Each structure stands twice: as structure tokens, then as C-alpha cells.
């Protein structure tokens, strides 16, 4: 399975199904006794009936370059937002703005939710807590936006002595782990710091020094109360779930 399902399966006491056919995946969850299925990237899977469509967009650039795949990053044209009941803008560095361009035209009836990414806990592979302030670290990650992750590490007071950037969803192996450990030793780094998504793949191969993971929390800035009402849960429950770390 992919890194994100593996990360969720390891962190949550809930069934996680990875299946290209979303109908089969939902059926498998129902057989396991689930009453609710939360699907990732399922807005375009229209053969599967759903009760609620929540579309999460990057706050800084909700429509990317405005073009569909493969020229751009959009799976569907922005006009498809009319099918959504919730449009969620997620910002990586502060929820500045917090408005969807053309909302009155594209999604006039949708609830608008705004959130921002916030640094979470720093832990080792055994779950022990650590502090980054004053530490010399090598940042290693395979993410879509590695600069954002490096900025989060630096914001916690770490000294970034070196960076190792890999393609998104990279699959680590023993050789890559050995090379990272050697680079960290040469740079006299106190630890290698990676994301939770990377740690689930790098951890099994790691034989070097300290390997820490920085998790990410979601801070709800706008729309929490209305979203909780829509989901028929308490607002405090929603806020706690958003702030939970994988």
C-alpha cells in the first residue's frame, strides 16, 4: 500500500482500506462493520454514492495554474465545485486571506472552511518526545512541498545543516537509509528529521543515529462550528480530531 494509508493504519485504531475501486473499498469497510466511510481523493469517483462531498484545496493556490492534468494539477475544472457541500481551504503557513476566488460563481451554496498547518510533536521511532530548538539537524523528506516542511523544522528553532530532498511518495531502501545516516554523521547533525509520511517508510531500514519525525496538526481557523453541525458532532470533538497527530 502507499505511504499515507500505511501511516494512518499505524496511527489509528480504525480499519484502513486501500483500493483503486472505491466501491469495493467501501464494501470492504461495510463488511468490517463500519457505519461511515471517509474516502481520500474520491470527489471524481462518481460511481460511488456519497452523503457528503468535502473538497480540500491548497489555500495559497486553490486552482494551481488553472489547468487540468497533465498540464496542471486539477483533476476537474473549478466549475465542478458546485457538487461540493464543503470547500476547505488549507494553508501551509498561516491562513492569510481565507477566501475562495470566484466563490459566488463556483460554489455559492457550499460551506467554506479555512485551516492552517501547524507543527506537531517531534518524536523518535519509539514515540519518545524531543525538542528541536538548538539542535543541528539534517532534514530528509519526499513531499510535494519540501520547502514548507524545512521551514516548519527551522521555525521550531533547529539549525538545518543539510537537506536531502526526494520525490513525493519516494520508497526508501536500505542503501538510501545508509547514505542518509552517513550524510548526517559527516554534517555532525544531532538527528535526521523527517515527516510522519516519510518515517513510516524510512524507519524499517534505519540503522543510523537519531531519526526523528515531525508531525503536523490542523488548526481550524474558520467554519468549525458549521462543519461540526453538518457532521452532527460536537464542535469540541471536531477540533480535537483536527488537532490530533497521525
List keywords for this structure.
28% helix; 7-stranded mixed β-sheet; 8 helices; single chain; alpha/beta; 246 residues
Descriptive overview:
The structure is a single chain. The protein has a seven-stranded mixed beta sheet with strand order 1-2-3-7-6-4-5. The chain is 28% helix and 22% strand. It is globular. The chain has eight helices and seven strands. The mean pLDDT is 93.
Topology, element by element:
Elements: H1 3-11, H2 22-31, E1 54-58, E2 86-91, H3 103-106, E3 111-124, E4 136-141, H4 146-155, E5 159-165, H5 174-186, E6 191-195, H6 196-202, E7 211-222, H7 224-231, H8 235-243
Mean pLDDT, to the nearest integer, reads 93
| N/C terminus separation | 17 Å
Strand order of the largest sheet: 1-2-3-7-6-4-5
SSE ordering: HHEEHEEHEHEHEHH
Main sheet specs: 7 strands, mixed
As a whole number of angstroms, the C-alpha radius of gyration is: 19 Å
Overall geometry comes to: globular
Helical residue percent? 25-40%
Compact description:
This protein is of the alpha/beta class and about 250 residues long. It has eight helices and seven strands; from the N terminus they run H-H-E-E-H-E-E-H-E-H-E-H-E-H-H.
